[in-house]
């Protein structure tokens, strides 16, 4: 990430030059601050279970101070585009290849980083014959600084908690965080093994409670409560909906000029309607804060399993009245029309007519739902499993069944009646609380 040119542009350590106090020039501190606060260790020292460490007075212990930021800012100097140019600031942008190091622009002075560790001065010889040596020594200095960051004990619990939040639940328990932290340390930070530990942990699968009831014989599924879930964020929920119902057609209707191919299906720009779009986070804090607390969440007292005594619901930061209205309208339109479509400009890399506007379309296949419209209870149960992971409450399922039954439907139903029942049932199910809240 440090060497990625897009991050270099985003957090401004691209072409970050070593300081020259004589002319009032100092290294940019943006990436130096954010890599610690947001990407690696957070603001305060943590135990392996995600609880805060405290000093003798009971106060939180900061992980770094301004001097640390300044030292890391000097570490992240000398990087520029890998564009083949011999100059640090010359040549065009290259956003694909890792940035390269210019030793002549790297700060080689000693740097005191985290936990009091000091990196020694780096030899950066000048002259054309020494360019390769200076570049290599500067890169080694940067690598040693990243090793210092990785060695901080906050790394495992800080990243583990964020991964659990994004993949399983908003409020992981202390034990859950500690087990994933242990997997992080044992694997040397191997992301595949850490994510495996997150998804296969026993707590990831204990968030849904089931019970068997008689007369009629049925299985009742219930979400495990406030601490065991999270709200699905719009772009992820919408992608899941397209995966469940999407069907690519290579044969558009006669006269339809759409360019349809599996490779070309794209999630639309949802920023205007749902305040979220791929790769368009409004800030380095993502689309929402990991510690966001919507109004009313403080009325819940968390169990002792939750670290630090507070509950959070990050994705609710997106759920404004405007977003909710746009969400309903967009889903209703797509489901009623039974397709998702967006227009985009064909990239120049495609041989046929690059630069032209084309449509990409994904048909929504509701054939199974239509086949169940004559049995409202069966249709409701099917949508519960397909869209809500079986977590729909008994009152929700009864209400959905009643709503389906209320839709006009004759003994020999017309195509319109079948369509209305199926589409209406899907619209109702995707907006059910047990569907939007993931257990």
Report on the structure:
There is one protein chain. Helix content is 37%, strand content 9%. It contains 15 helices and 11 strands. Strand 5 and strand 6 (218-223) form a beta hairpin. Helix 6 (174-186) packs antiparallel against helix 7 (191-200) and helix 12 (376-388) packs across helix 13 (394-406). The model is unreliable at 252-262 (pLDDT under 50).
Helix/strand class = alpha+beta
Please state roughly what percent of the residues sit in beta strands, choosing from under 5%, 5-15%, 15-25%, 25-35%, 35-45% or over 45%: 5-15%
Q: Give the helix proportion (percent range).
A: 25-40%
Q: Rg from C-alpha positions?
A: 27 Å
Features:
single chain, 439 residues, alpha+beta, 3-stranded antiparallel β-sheet, two-stranded antiparallel sheet, 15 helices, 11 strands, 37% helix, elongated
Chart the SSEs and their pairings.
Elements (H helix, E strand, L loop, with lengths): L4 H6 L19 H8 L28 H10 L3 E2 L19 E2 L9 E2 L5 E2 L11 H20 L4 H13 L6 H13 L4 H10 L7 E6 L4 E6 L6 E2 L2 H12 E2 L23 H4 L46 H17 L1 E7 L11 E8 L2 H5 L4 H13 L5 H13 L8 H16 L2 H4 E2 L1
Antiparallel strand pairs: 1-2, 3-4, 5-6, 7-11, 8-10, 9-10
In short:
This protein is α+β, with helices and mostly antiparallel strands and 439 residues long. Helix content is 37%, strand content 9%.
């Amino acid at each position: 990430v440090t060497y990625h040119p897009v991050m270099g542009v985003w957090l401004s350590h691209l072409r970050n030059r070593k300081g020259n106090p004589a002319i009032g020039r100092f290294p940019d501190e943006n990436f130096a601050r954010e890599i610690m606060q947001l990407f690696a260790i957070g603001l305060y020292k943590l135990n392996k279970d995600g609880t805060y460490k405290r000093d003798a007075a009971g106060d939180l212990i900061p992980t770094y101070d301004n001097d640390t930021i300044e030292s890391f800012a000097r570490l992240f100097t000398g990087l520029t585009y890998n564009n083949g140019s011999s100059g640090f600031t010359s040549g065009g942008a290259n956003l694909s290849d890792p940035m390269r190091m210019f030793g002549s622009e790297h700060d080689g002075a000693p740097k005191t980083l985290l936990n009091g560790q000091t990196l020694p001065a780096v030899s950066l010889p000048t002259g054309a014959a020494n360019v390769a040596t200076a570049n290599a020594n500067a890169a080694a200095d940067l690598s040693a600084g990243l090793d210092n960051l990785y060695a901080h004990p906050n790394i495992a619990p800080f990243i583990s908690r964020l991964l659990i939040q994004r993949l399983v639940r908003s409020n992981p328990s202390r034990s859950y965080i500690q087990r994933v932290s242990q997997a992080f340390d044992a694997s040397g930070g191997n992301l595949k093994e850490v994510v495996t530990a997150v998804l296969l942990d026993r707590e990831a699968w204990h968030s849904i409670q089931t019970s068997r009831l008689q007369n009629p014989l049925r299985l009742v599924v219930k979400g495990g409560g406030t601490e065991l879930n999270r709200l699905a964020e719009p772009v992820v929920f919408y992608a899941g909906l397209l995966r469940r119902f999407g069907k690519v057609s290579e044969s558009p209707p006669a006269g339809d000029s759409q360019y349809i191919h599996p490779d070309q299906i794209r999630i639309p720009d949802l920023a205007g309607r749902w305040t979220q779009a791929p790769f368009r986070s409004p800030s380095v804090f993502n689309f929402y804060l990991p510690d966001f607390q919507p109004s009313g969440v403080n009325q819940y007292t968390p169990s002792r399993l939750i670290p630090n005594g507070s509950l959070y619901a990050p994705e609710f930061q997106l759920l404004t009245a405007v977003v909710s209205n746009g969400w309903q309208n967009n889903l209703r339109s797509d489901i009623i029309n039974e397709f998702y479509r967006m227009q985009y400009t064909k990239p120049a890399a495609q041989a046929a007519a690059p630069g032209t506007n084309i449509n990409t379309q994904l048909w929504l296949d509701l054939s199974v739902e239509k086949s169940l419209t004559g049995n409202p209870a069966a249709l409701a149960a099917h949508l519960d499993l397909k869209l809500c992971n079986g977590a729909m409450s008994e009152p929700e399922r009864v209400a959905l069944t009643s709503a389906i039954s209320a839709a006009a439907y004759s003994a020999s139903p017309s195509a319109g009646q079948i369509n209305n029942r199926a589409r209406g049932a899907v619209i109702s199910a995707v907006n059910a609380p047990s569907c939007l809240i993931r257990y």
